[in-house]
Request: fold
Amino acid sequence: MSGAGPSSSPAARSLARYARWRAWELALFAVLPLSWLLLPTHSLLVNEIAIVALFAVSLDLILGYAGIVSLGHAAFFGFGAYAAALFAKEMNADPLLGLAVAVGASALLGAASSVLILRGSDLTRLMVTLGVASILYELANQLDGLTGGADGLQGVVMGPLVTPFGRFAFDLSGRVACAYSLTVLGLSLLLARRLVHSPFGISLQALRDNRLRAESIGLSVRLRLAAVYTIAAAFAGAAGALLAQTSGFASLDVFDFHRSAEVLLVLVIGGTGYLYGGVFGAIVFKLLHDLISAWTPQYWNFWLGLFLVVLVLVGRDRFVRPWTWLRSGR
Amino acid sequence: MTAALETRSLVKRFGGLAACNDVSLTLEQGARHALIGPNGAGKTTLVNLLTGVLEPTSGSVVLAGEDITRLSVHARVRRGMVRTFQITQLFNGLTPLASLALAVSAQRGASAGGWRRLGDDPDVARECDSLLARFGLVDVMDQPVAALAYGKRRLLEIATALACRPRVLLLDEPVAGVPEGDRQEIFETIGALPTDVSVLLIEHDMDLVFNFAKTVTVLVNGAVFAEGEVGAIAADPRVKAVYLGEGEGEDDASRPAHG
Reply:
């Protein structure tokens, strides 16, 4: 039976093991700086991957952990992008300040729109999230005095990154942009990792599994759904801000339905509910996109579709273990 | 002394049907009270009114002197009104240990803190150890809940409720569907519940009712039909009549029953 110290408690030991760092997790975190060091000629691609990865991780928080389906996650991505671009253009060109503003603005939007996803079935949520993203798309289109309308917000000039290690101006080859995005992605992952191993994070999985039971152990389900929706919106806003800041541009495309659908695809490719699915999915998705469109530009969607169908039918676990393919099904 | 739980003239109407009709129950501190009644007597409705799943048409629910009639499900749990489910309701994606640690943390108000890891608090871990040991779940604490045998799931159901530190515990048919071999373990566990917890047992299994309960309320057609010491209820011919299926209402039930 349990003795004096926490080390003699089996429960404490097991609980500590649940949150322990896995070797592959450390390897993944090591890949972030390595990709910057070893792939200097592919900085623009790595930057893109980092941004999509962050966006997909934010979707995983609501979909994989809390079970909230969304077809309009681009609402927060786009809001963050426009907020960062507008802030840089009208107020202050400092990227870190702009990132903070974009994160704050997206979080506010997330908190406000979270009331819409507290009730209803999956289908309702799909429609409501889709609707919110469409509304924002049309607002950005109509308010052309502010957003530039269909032409997008052009002429966004970012100031240099001011860090303790020096000032870095964004360059054309994307070296600084890439390092910036990878750093934000890494820090966001650390934050999200801490979150999902906390009682709050576990409670999200609990309410996803069984909402009735979650309430019956004294958890306020609505409060938790609103909280995680707000947090995910903040992360998505950060991803949007990175895109606007590193490309110096924000256009209606950031709110478009294909963004919401694409991030869902990325997450499904990488796998939901273990936090890193978005990162793996973004790498696979972007590399496939690059490879296939270099090989056969017109038929990229065909091959992507085929890949998805095979992945879903075979199952991800089997798909990443080719040596099991020849064995019998069960 | 204030009653642990009291309902005052509780009424719940679904359209014209009164599923709960003027029910006034009192559960003393430390009570071992059983609620029995034939199918459709309104037991489930009463449980839902007590736990906050349903709002009553009129009347009130009072927990240790506090009116909780309008409180949400989770707010009632925080105040000590905890239930188990007839159909096991667990977190299939978690382990038994994580489920219990979550329930214990929630009760301590630690679940809002996003920065601590689940189990960083040694008190939470200690309480989990004690619950796991008491319910014979130590061996399976790291297995996925979805993979547990049915008997273990029933035990985890009760352990999860106790992790919420109940003042009043509603046990909704704790042995429903449990195979004969596993029943004894659950009987013993229920018998060993802490005495400061007042228990309301909703049950069909008369063995369990007569072994466990000291007082019994018989519910028929949404209303209290009989109430009293367990011995008196067991001997009541009207109650027997209801259970033999002869009495559909009060008129029929007043007839004497056969053995």
Observations:
- The interface with chain B takes residues 1-2, 6, 9-12, 14-16, 18-19, 194-195, 197-203, 205-206, 208-210, 212-221 of chain A (CB under 8 Å).
- The first helix of chain A runs from residue 10 to 18.
